[in-house]
Specification:
Layout lengths: L9 H5 L8 E3 L4 E3 L1 H9 L8 E3 H7 L17 E3 L4 E3 L3 H5 L8 E3 H4 L7 H102 L2 H31 L4
Antiparallel strand pairs: 1-2, 1-3, 4-5, 4-6
Helix pairs in contact: 6-7
Bound molecules: zinc ion (4 copies).
């Protein structure tokens, strides 16, 4: 930002008079009031000095241009073409000993038409290319910012959907298992009931055989007992075999 402070006339200031400057001499680097500017122009030594308005000076006063040599502190009065560098008088014998006299020219000559120079054109080109690059990078990161939001939403949705699908799968699995359990329970129960009935029937039959044996022993002849014992034994053996078969079925028919 250009300073809003008033620039005072240097010449009047030298006479302890405070007066605002209207113009700025770029060579003397001093402000001039209207009166003093006339004198400045009338003198041969300063007639060709480039004057600019104080408004224009405010635009450039914040531009940091160093007019002195950073090493020696002297004014940068010369320019070496070979090294493309502005130098002071002390620089020449030390750093530019081998540079020819035609390489080293006055800074005034070197800076003539600087506004049309390719160096300024290059600088402007580099600046505008840099601005383009920065803008491109900003655009790129703005797109990335949008993408990162979209990605987050997509992944969030995937997580939610996966959770829903898992719930659905587990519900379905539970339903199937319960259905299966119900049918197995029914089968198993009816199987046990069936065997239980058969066993009860067997119990009655064996009880009957016991009764028959008892009666035979009490009332039958020896021949009857002889034949009856063998026949009853066959019947009992059949029942024993059936019982063994049942025991085998019990072991086999667990929850399957
Ligand atoms: Zn003045
Ligand atoms: Zn001047
Ligand atoms: Zn120097
Ligand atoms: Zn040089």
């Amino acid at each position: 930002m250009a300073s809003k402070l008033n620039i005072s006339c240097g010449t009047c200031g030298y006479e302890d008079i405070s007066k605002n400057a209207k113009k700025w001499c770029t060579i003397c680097e001093e402000g001039f009031c209207g009166e003093c500017e006339k004198y400045h122009k009338s003198m041969k030594v300063s007639r060709d000095h480039k004057m600019i308005s104080t408004e224009d000076y405010r635009q450039i006063q914040n531009i940091s241009v160093n007019f002195n040599c950073e090493i020696h502190g002297k004014k940068l009065d010369l320019y070496c073409k070979k090294h493309d560098i502005a130098v002071c008088v002390v620089c020449i014998p030390s750093e530019h000993k081998s540079c020819s006299s035609s390489d080293v020219i006055s800074i005034d000559e070197a800076s003539k038409n600087a506004k049309q120079s390719s160096a300024l054109l290059d600088l402007e080109g580099t600046i505008s290319a840099t601005i383009d690059n920065v803008k491109h990078c900003i655009k790129n990161r703005e797109i990335a910012l949008t993408n990162v939001d979209q990605d987050e939403q997509t992944i969030r949705k995937t997580i939610t959907d996966t959770r829903k699908n898992l719930n659905k799968y587990l519900d379905e699995l539970e339903r199937k298992l319960l259905l299966d359990l119900k049918s197995k329970h029914k089968n198993r129960k009816s199987q046990i009931m069936k065997i239980l009935n058969q066993l009860k029937q067997m119990e009655q039959e064996v009880e009957k055989l016991k009764e028959q044996t008892l009666q035979m022993k009490r009332f039958a002849s020896d021949l009857q007992v002889f034949l009856g014992t063998r026949q009853l034994n066959q019947s009992v053996s059949k029942q024993v075999e059936s019982l063994k078969e049942f025991a085998r079925v019990f072991r086999k028919a667990e929850w399957k």
